[in-house]
Amino acid sequence: MNSAVLPTIAVTGFTVAFFHAAIPTHWLPFVLVARARGWSRAKTLVVTACAGLGHVGLTTLLGLAIAWFGFQLDERVGGLFPWMIGAFLIVVGLYYFWRQWRGGGICHHHLLGGQHHPSAACGHEHSAGQQSSHWDEELKDSPLVSTRVSDWTAISGLFVLLTLSPCEGFLPVYLSGVRFGWRGFVLLSIILAVAALAAMTLFTWLALLGLERFKVRRFERYEAALLGGLFSLLGVLVILLEH
Length: 243
What we know:
Elements: H1 5-22, H2 28-37, H3 41-77, H4 81-101, H5 134-140, H6 151-163, H7 171-176, H8 181-208, H9 217-221, H10 223-242
Helix pairs in contact: 1-8, 1-10, 3-6, 3-8, 4-10
């Protein structure tokens, strides 16, 4: 195996995990709930990190199943495996491009008990004159900010919100690292955890400092296109570097 393959996969995996976790769906709900409930910055960051661990944990478990399947497949097809994985990644990339083209480029996480109010912030704007924040609108109908529920209930809701929405974009990365065995799986899992938690806590912290208008929201609109480009490029590189 070409020694450049694993670093290429690792860099791609970090990029996918970081930018996926940087979109507002992964940190803005924590900021809004914290402000509504009067949480300190430290408490908000701890809650964000804990929810991030749940998000990473479920993604890693799914990655474990994918890696095991990949190990079995690698044993059976041998030298064809890089071609199969490369082709699969290119197909995944084309799927994300198609999803972006169809206007479904965002993986939404909606506040428990809230209602979806389309807006420019979420890419589902119905009216050009609509100025209200997507998440501010959803927050109005969510029990997470209600004084009738405890902080632990709100924290549990945020935890479930993120845990049950794994990082689907990282799963193909696990499959691309199959030829590196369990060493590759562990490395990619560490990369996923570091990148996702770093992005979530960083942008939560920036938002708490009043910098939530940072232009990272643009990534939310074009998340699928970004993933499409990364996976297509990774698929081509896996084929070229292995041969």
